[in-house]
Amino acid sequence: MEIKSAEFVMSNSDVAKCPKNLVPEYAFIGRSNVGKSSLINMLTSRKSLAKTSGRPGKTQLINHFLINKNWYLVDLPGYGYARVSKSSKKTFQKFITDYFTQREQLVSAFVLVDIRHKPQPIDLEFMAWMGENGIPFSIIFTKADKLKPQAILNHVADYSAIMLETWVDMPNYFITSSSKSIGKEDVLNYIHELNENMME
Protein backbone atom coordinates (compact mmCIF):
# COMPACT_ATOMS: atom_id res chain seq x y z
CA MET A 1 0.00 0.00 0.00
CA GLU A 2 1.22 3.49 -0.85
CA ILE A 3 0.49 6.31 1.59
CA LYS A 4 -0.73 9.17 -0.58
CA SER A 5 -2.14 11.34 2.17
CA ALA A 6 -1.81 11.52 5.96
CA GLU A 7 -3.49 14.26 7.93
CA PHE A 8 -3.99 14.98 11.60
CA VAL A 9 -7.68 15.00 12.55
CA MET A 10 -7.98 15.35 16.33
CA SER A 11 -6.57 14.70 19.79
CA ASN A 12 -8.62 14.03 22.89
CA SER A 13 -8.85 12.01 26.09
CA ASP A 14 -12.50 11.03 25.76
CA VAL A 15 -13.42 8.06 23.58
CA ALA A 16 -16.92 9.47 23.16
CA LYS A 17 -15.39 12.42 21.29
CA CYS A 18 -13.48 10.29 18.77
CA PRO A 19 -14.59 10.52 15.11
CA LYS A 20 -18.18 9.33 14.64
CA ASN A 21 -17.82 8.04 11.08
CA LEU A 22 -17.42 4.30 10.57
CA VAL A 23 -13.91 4.48 9.13
CA PRO A 24 -11.66 1.52 10.06
CA GLU A 25 -9.07 2.25 12.73
CA TYR A 26 -5.67 0.76 13.51
CA ALA A 27 -4.26 1.66 16.91
CA PHE A 28 -0.57 1.79 17.81
CA ILE A 29 0.48 1.40 21.43
CA GLY A 30 3.53 0.36 23.42
CA ARG A 31 5.79 1.33 26.29
CA SER A 32 6.66 5.01 26.33
CA ASN A 33 10.20 4.60 24.99
CA VAL A 34 9.57 1.99 22.31
CA GLY A 35 9.86 4.32 19.30
CA LYS A 36 6.17 4.59 18.43
CA SER A 37 6.24 8.09 16.95
CA SER A 38 9.27 7.26 14.81
CA LEU A 39 7.51 4.14 13.52
CA ILE A 40 4.35 6.08 12.63
CA ASN A 41 6.42 8.68 10.77
CA MET A 42 8.29 5.91 8.94
CA LEU A 43 5.10 4.11 7.92
CA THR A 44 3.50 7.29 6.61
CA SER A 45 6.72 8.72 5.08
CA ARG A 46 6.13 11.92 7.05
CA LYS A 47 9.00 13.22 9.15
CA SER A 48 6.87 14.91 11.77
CA LEU A 49 3.33 13.52 11.56
CA ALA A 50 3.69 12.10 15.06
CA LYS A 51 5.75 14.16 17.47
CA THR A 52 8.98 12.47 18.52
CA SER A 53 10.78 13.37 21.72
CA GLY A 54 13.79 12.35 23.76
CA ARG A 55 11.47 12.43 26.76
CA PRO A 56 9.37 9.26 27.10
CA GLY A 57 5.66 9.77 27.63
CA LYS A 58 5.23 12.56 25.07
CA THR A 59 1.97 11.17 23.69
CA GLN A 60 -0.72 11.80 26.30
CA LEU A 61 -3.88 11.83 24.18
CA ILE A 62 -5.74 9.71 21.64
CA ASN A 63 -4.49 11.04 18.30
CA HIS A 64 -6.35 10.31 15.06
CA PHE A 65 -4.65 10.59 11.67
CA LEU A 66 -6.65 10.02 8.48
CA ILE A 67 -4.65 7.95 5.99
CA ASN A 68 -5.48 7.89 2.26
CA LYS A 69 -8.90 9.31 3.13
CA ASN A 70 -10.12 5.82 4.05
CA TRP A 71 -8.63 4.64 7.37
CA TYR A 72 -7.45 6.06 10.67
CA LEU A 73 -4.08 5.51 12.24
CA VAL A 74 -4.59 6.00 15.98
CA ASP A 75 -1.61 6.97 18.13
CA LEU A 76 -2.26 6.04 21.77
CA PRO A 77 -0.32 7.01 24.91
CA GLY A 78 2.42 4.66 25.97
CA TYR A 79 1.90 2.43 28.96
CA GLY A 80 4.49 1.91 31.67
CA TYR A 81 7.19 4.46 32.30
CA ALA A 82 6.29 8.11 31.80
CA ARG A 83 7.33 11.18 33.77
CA VAL A 84 3.82 12.07 34.83
CA SER A 85 1.91 11.97 38.09
CA LYS A 86 0.12 8.86 39.34
CA SER A 87 -3.23 10.56 38.75
CA SER A 88 -2.26 11.26 35.13
CA LYS A 89 -1.24 7.64 34.64
CA LYS A 90 -4.63 6.51 35.94
CA THR A 91 -6.29 8.87 33.47
CA PHE A 92 -4.22 7.42 30.60
CA GLN A 93 -5.05 3.88 31.66
CA LYS A 94 -8.76 4.64 31.80
CA PHE A 95 -9.06 6.15 28.34
CA ILE A 96 -6.78 3.50 26.84
CA THR A 97 -9.01 0.84 28.37
CA ASP A 98 -12.13 2.70 27.24
CA TYR A 99 -10.76 3.02 23.72
CA PHE A 100 -10.09 -0.70 23.33
CA THR A 101 -13.31 -1.88 24.96
CA GLN A 102 -15.69 0.68 23.41
CA ARG A 103 -14.33 1.64 20.00
CA GLU A 104 -16.35 -0.30 17.41
CA GLN A 105 -14.31 1.12 14.53
CA LEU A 106 -11.13 -0.59 15.75
CA VAL A 107 -10.07 -3.30 13.31
CA SER A 108 -6.75 -4.20 14.89
CA ALA A 109 -4.16 -2.89 17.32
CA PHE A 110 -0.40 -3.01 16.99
CA VAL A 111 1.51 -3.53 20.23
CA LEU A 112 5.07 -2.24 19.89
CA VAL A 113 7.88 -4.11 21.61
CA ASP A 114 11.60 -3.20 21.66
CA ILE A 115 13.34 -6.18 20.05
CA ARG A 116 16.56 -5.45 21.96
CA HIS A 117 15.15 -6.54 25.30
CA LYS A 118 14.10 -9.84 26.78
CA PRO A 119 10.33 -10.27 27.23
CA GLN A 120 9.14 -7.64 29.70
CA PRO A 121 6.32 -8.42 32.18
CA ILE A 122 4.52 -5.14 31.41
CA ASP A 123 4.32 -6.00 27.69
CA LEU A 124 3.23 -9.58 28.36
CA GLU A 125 0.59 -8.43 30.85
CA PHE A 126 -0.80 -5.86 28.43
CA MET A 127 -1.03 -8.40 25.61
CA ALA A 128 -2.68 -10.88 27.98
CA TRP A 129 -5.29 -8.22 28.79
CA MET A 130 -5.86 -7.66 25.08
CA GLY A 131 -6.34 -11.38 24.56
CA GLU A 132 -8.67 -11.75 27.52
CA ASN A 133 -10.83 -8.94 26.16
CA GLY A 134 -10.91 -10.35 22.64
CA ILE A 135 -9.13 -7.38 21.07
CA PRO A 136 -7.30 -8.34 17.84
CA PHE A 137 -3.69 -7.25 17.71
CA SER A 138 -0.31 -7.87 16.12
CA ILE A 139 3.09 -7.36 17.69
CA ILE A 140 5.51 -4.93 16.08
CA PHE A 141 9.08 -5.53 17.17
CA THR A 142 10.93 -2.20 16.85
CA LYS A 143 14.58 -1.15 16.55
CA ALA A 144 15.66 -4.25 14.62
CA ASP A 145 18.62 -2.34 13.18
CA LYS A 146 20.23 -2.46 16.64
CA LEU A 147 20.65 -6.26 16.55
CA LYS A 148 22.23 -8.82 14.27
CA PRO A 149 19.86 -11.18 12.41
CA GLN A 150 20.53 -14.16 14.68
CA ALA A 151 19.92 -12.09 17.80
CA ILE A 152 16.59 -10.95 16.35
CA LEU A 153 15.58 -14.57 15.76
CA ASN A 154 16.64 -15.48 19.30
CA HIS A 155 14.64 -12.67 20.89
CA VAL A 156 11.52 -13.50 18.87
CA ALA A 157 11.96 -17.15 19.89
CA ASP A 158 12.15 -16.05 23.55
CA TYR A 159 8.87 -14.18 23.18
CA SER A 160 7.24 -17.09 21.40
CA ALA A 161 8.32 -19.58 24.06
CA ILE A 162 6.91 -17.47 26.88
CA MET A 163 3.67 -16.56 25.13
CA LEU A 164 2.96 -20.13 24.05
CA GLU A 165 2.86 -21.09 27.73
CA THR A 166 -0.53 -19.36 27.90
CA TRP A 167 -1.49 -18.63 24.27
CA VAL A 168 -2.65 -21.26 21.75
CA ASP A 169 -0.66 -19.54 18.99
CA MET A 170 1.98 -16.85 18.82
CA PRO A 171 0.25 -13.60 17.76
CA ASN A 172 0.95 -12.24 14.30
CA TYR A 173 4.13 -10.15 14.37
CA PHE A 174 6.37 -7.85 12.33
CA ILE A 175 10.07 -6.99 12.54
CA THR A 176 10.70 -3.27 11.98
CA SER A 177 13.27 -0.51 12.09
CA SER A 178 12.22 3.12 11.70
CA SER A 179 15.70 4.32 10.77
CA LYS A 180 16.13 1.65 8.07
CA SER A 181 12.46 1.43 6.97
CA ILE A 182 12.52 -2.29 7.72
CA GLY A 183 9.06 -3.87 7.80
CA LYS A 184 7.27 -0.85 6.35
CA GLU A 185 5.69 -2.66 3.41
CA ASP A 186 4.79 -5.70 5.53
CA VAL A 187 2.81 -3.62 8.03
CA LEU A 188 1.11 -1.45 5.41
CA ASN A 189 0.21 -4.42 3.20
CA TYR A 190 -1.29 -6.17 6.23
CA ILE A 191 -3.49 -3.14 6.95
CA HIS A 192 -4.45 -3.00 3.26
CA GLU A 193 -5.47 -6.67 3.34
CA LEU A 194 -7.62 -6.14 6.43
CA ASN A 195 -9.31 -3.16 4.78
CA GLU A 196 -9.95 -5.19 1.63
CA ASN A 197 -11.41 -8.08 3.64
CA MET A 198 -13.83 -5.70 5.34
CA MET A 199 -15.16 -4.58 1.98
CA GLU A 200 -15.90 -8.10 0.73
UniProtKB/TrEMBL annotation:
One of its GO terms (molecular function) is GTP binding. The keyword Cell division applies. CDD domains: YihA_EngB. Residues 22-200 form the EngB-type G domain. Its cofactor is Mg(2+). InterPro entries: G_ENGB_dom, GTP-bd, GTP-bd_ribosome_bio_YsxC, P-loop_NTPase. Keywords: Cell cycle, Cell division, GTP-binding, Magnesium, Metal-binding, Nucleotide-binding, Septation. GO terms for biological process: division septum assembly. Pfam families: MMR_HSR1. Necessary for normal cell division and for the maintenance of normal septation. Belongs to the TRAFAC class TrmE-Era-EngA-EngB-Septin-like GTPase superfamily. EngB GTPase family. HAMAP family: GTPase_EngB (MF_00321). This is Probable GTP-binding protein EngB. It comes from Bizionia echini.
